[in-house]
Amino acid sequence: MSSEVKVPTLGESVSEATIGEWLKQPGDRVALDDPIASLETDKVSVEVPSPVAGVMGAQNFAVGDMVEVGTVIATIEDQSPAAGAEPLAERTEAPVPPASDSAPPAAASAEPDVSAQTLSPAVRRAVLEHGIDPSAVQGTGKDGRLTKEDVLAAAKAKESGGGKAVSAPAPASTECAPSPAAAGKRREERVKMTRMRQTIARRLKSAQDEAALLTTFNDVDMSAVISAREKYKDLFAKKHGIKLGFMSFFAKAACLALRDVPAANAYIEGDEIVYHDYVDISVAVSAPNGLVVPVVRDAHAKSFAQIELDIADFGARARDGSLTMEDMKGGNFTISNGGVFGSLLSTPIINPPQSAVLGLHRIDDRPVVVNGEIVIRPMMYLALSYDHRLIDGREAVTTLKIIKEAIEDPTRLLIDL
């Protein structure tokens, strides 16, 4: 007897997804609610849980296939599947031939043992390419699963000689092993774009085509915020259980600016302008498959601590792939922090239908003139990209100026100036 595994409801207005990876293979034992597949939608990855306990049966679709909500993508059997059953998706590892009578019983394997773990195709390829033993690497993904980043970090640690990762035993024979590329030989690899990457590309190009994009810049002295963090970081962490970061300061500063410049908190819909009396801030977060922008709702009414907790939660769930469509829905204004990657200056692109995005950058000690004297201050460049169809230059400059002033004098955030 078998049970059907169907594509679950994916969210409002989302009717289809792509098979991202199979987390279980035919013959694998499956517990109730075990994730058996990962689906990619336009914005997030969604895991499909098993409706029953049993053994993984047939896979009706291959990785990369498009499936609609309600489609039966696999079956779960109450006993081992019939002999000879094979998944439709191509397996990435070769079958192990039976040992010959003359072979030593404990012969070393020529490849890492990847069969004991559920690995995605990208992770499996990285494991085999770098010769990493997956059982010796601590996974940081959901439920402790390995990510490609885990494998690459282990490989780097192995090369430097300072990591704990254990490499696979050296093959007894290199007859069947792929020979290394000759010096100077160039290689190419074609990888199909994920559904999320296709959507990101389409939306960003649409923003360029439809909006009248312009960027205004300013710089901000981070001395006051750095001093406040240093003074209160221990008390803040003890009371709220979260570190005091820069993002909460900029989120609250943006709330002040958007209140005073309503156009920056609005968007165009047809021939109408939609204004908001609340601030939902989209925060750009890096995920394994690309950039995602979960939304801190009612940021204007939240404390510094709650904003920091929300952002930390989004970051953790972006890394393990558990963000939902609801997390990404809406948003009036976006903050993107390229400084964490070392960016000095950039021109961010708005997140449609929003009309403005604030770009943060790295903090550098630079000479500035204060009261007629040259002093060294921790400075950051700020960039505000905006839709000039709705926001005039004066409004854009004013918005950025308010944010700058609030960061340089955080007391403004407390007394609502």
Tell me about this structure.
- The protein has 417 residues and is an alpha+beta fold.
- It has 3 domains: 1-90, OB fold (Dihydrolipoamide Acetyltransferase, E2P) (Beta Barrel); 117-168, Irregular (Dihydrolipoamide Transferase); 213-415, Chloramphenicol acetyltransferase-like domain (Chloramphenicol Acetyltransferase).
- Helices cover 27% and strands 24% of the residues.
- Strands 9, 12, 15, 16, 17, 18 and 19 form a 7-stranded mixed β-sheet that branches. A 4-stranded antiparallel β-sheet has the order 1-8-6-3, with no helix packed on it.
- β13 (285-287) and β14 form a beta hairpin.
Characterize this entry briefly.
The chain has about 425 residues and is an alpha+beta fold.
CATH class of the largest domain: Alpha Beta
Strand percentage lies at: 15-25%
Detail the poorly predicted runs: 80-111, 163-177
Shape: globular
What is the CATH fold-level name of the largest domain? Chloramphenicol Acetyltransferase
From the 3D coordinates, which CATH architecture of the largest domain would you assign? 2-Layer Sandwich
Distance between the termini: 68 Å
Percent range of helical residues: 25-40%
> Average pLDDT value?
81
What count of structural domains?
3
Rg (C-alpha, Å): 26 Å
Number of helices: 9
Largest sheet: 7 strands, mixed
Number of strands: 19
Order of helices and strands: EEEEEEEEHHHEHHEEEEEEHHEEEEHH
- Determine the structural class based on helices, strands and strand pairing: alpha+beta
The CATH homologous superfamily name of the largest domain equals Chloramphenicol acetyltransferase-like domain
